[in-house]
Design goal:
CATH architecture: Alpha-Beta Barrel
Oligomer: single chain
CATH topology: TIM Barrel
Radius of gyration: 16 Å
Structural class: alpha/beta
CATH superfamily: Aldolase class I
Shape: globular
Order of helices and strands: EHEHEHEHEEHEHEEEH
Strand order of the largest sheet: 1-2-3-4-5-6-7-8
Largest sheet: 8 strands, parallel, barrel
Number of strands: 10
Number of helices: 7
Number of domains: 1
CATH class: Alpha Beta
Distance between the termini: 17 Å
Strand content: 15-25%
Helix content: 25-40%
C-alpha cells in the first residue's frame, strides 16, 4: 500500500488534518533558509499534545550530527531525512533511523544508492541552487529503475492529485507531497489535501480489486 508523507508542516491545523486524512508520515523542516522551516520547540509541543501513529520526519540539510541528535531526542522524531551532501560514513555514524535523499539528474544518479546502508531512499529532483523543494518532477522511469533494483524509495518532486496515479504505477514505497497541497508556502489547503487523499483511496481500492480479481 502506497505510503504518504505530507511535508512542510508548520502549524497544528495542518498537522491534525494530515493525520486525520490518512498520512503515514508528516515532515518538519529544520533548515532555516526554507520558508517552511520550524523550530524544534514546535515539534516538541506536537509530540506532547497529540498521540498519533503518524510518524514524524525531521528534514535536515548538512547539519551537524550533534544538532540532529538533539532535535531527534528532544522533539520526538521517528526518522531524520538527510537532504544535503551527507556521506555514507556520516549517515552510519549518526546512529539514527534515516532516509537519505538522492537528487536525481539522470539514471546515473542512482549509482550512489549502493554506497549507503539505508533502508529507505527519497528521490527528489536535482536543482543546482537549492537542496530540494523544487516542485518539479523528474523522469519517473528512473524511479521505476530504482524499484526494480529492489530499493525502497519515496518519490518527491511535483506530485499532486493530478499525477498521483502515474507515480503510483511505478510502485514506490511512498510519495512525499508538499507545495501542491498549499495555499501558500507553509500553509496547507485542506480542500487540496482532501482531494489528494481521495485520489490515494481510489488507487488503494484499485489495488485491492486487482488482487481480488
Amino acid at each position: 500500500m502506497l505510503k504518504v508523507k505530507i511535508c512542510g508542516i508548520t502549524n497544528v491545523e495542518d498537522y491534525l488534518a494530515a493525520a486525520s486524512l490518512g498520512a503515514d508520515f508528516t515532515g518538519f523542516i529544520f533548515y532555516e533558509p526554507s520558508s517552511r522551516s520550524v523550530p524544534p520547540l514546535f515539534v516538541k509541543s506536537l509530540s506532547r499534545q497529540f498521540s498519533s501513529p503518524v510518524k514524524k520526519v525531521g528534514v535536515f540539510v548538512n547539519e551537524t550530527q550533534e544538532n540532529i541528535r538533539r532535535a531527534y531526542y528532544e522533539t520526538g522524531l521517528d526518522i531524520v531525512q538527510l537532504h544535503g551532501d551527507e556521506s555514507p560514513d556520516y549517515c552510519l555514524r549518526l546512529g539514527l533511523p534515516f532516509w537519505k535523499v538522492i537528487k536525481v539528474r539522470d539514471q546515473k544518479s542512482l549509482d550512489q544508492m549502493s554506497r549507503y546502508d539505508c533502508e529507505t531512499f527519497l528521490l527528489d529532483t536535482y536543482a543546482k541552487d537549492k537542496p530540494g523543494g523544487t516542485s518539479m518532477p523528474f523522469d519517473w522511469k528512473i524511479a521505476q529503475e530504482a524499484v526494480d533494483k529492489k530499493f525502497q524509495i519515496v518519490v518527491a518532486g511535483g506530485i499532486s492529485s493530478e499525477n498521483i496515479e502515474e507515480v503510483a504505477s511505478v510502485r514506490p514505497y511512498g510519495v512525499d507531497v508538499s507545495s501542491s497541497l498549499e495555499e501558500y508556502p507553509g500553509k496547507k489547503s485542506i480542500e487540496k489535501m482532501i482531494t489528494f487523499f481521495s485520489a490515494i483511496k481510489r488507487i488503494t481500492r484499485g489495488e485491492h480489486a486487482a488482487r481480488d480479481g
